[in-house]
Specification:
Layout: E1 2-7, E2 16-19, E3 27-32, E4 35-40, E5 54-56, E6 59-61, E7 68-70, E8 76-78, E9 87-88, E10 90-93, E11 96-100
The protein binds FE2/S2 (inorganic) cluster.
Length: 102
């Protein structure tokens, strides 16, 4: 099932946004040059929210210890982060962003 997440206009290119949907973990929406990616927001290393981090190209940097994750795959790309974070399938329809509810 796809669930409405947010308006794409709420997440400008190069930025991230935290979104909470009932029954799902906190999510972070990342806009990489108009391409949207949705990940579980909680860093796999600690308790920080990646929604508070910086987006650097295709990577989001954790605000706590600067671990990084590839927003396309969830793979950890810089230590101390080692384990991946979950990625969620998403689609854009008419300016609305939807995420799959696994
Ligand atoms: Fe994210 Fe440590 S909490 S790198």
């Amino acid at each position: 099932m796809m669930r409405f997440l947010c308006d794409t206009a709420e997440v400008p290119a190069g930025e991230t946004r935290s979104v909470r949907l009932e029954g799902m973990p906190e999510l972070v929406v990342c806009n990489v040059d108009g391409e949207f990616h949705v990940l579980a927001a909680t860093c796999s290393h600690g308790k920080a929210s990646l929604a508070d981090g910086r987006l650097l190209g295709c990577e989001v940097e954790c605000p706590l210890h600067s671990g990084r994750f590839d927003v396309r795959t969830g793979r950890a790309t810089r230590r101390p982060a080692k384990r991946p974070v979950a990625v969620y399938e998403c689609v854009v329809e008419g300016g609305d962003l939807y995420v799959s509810d696994p």
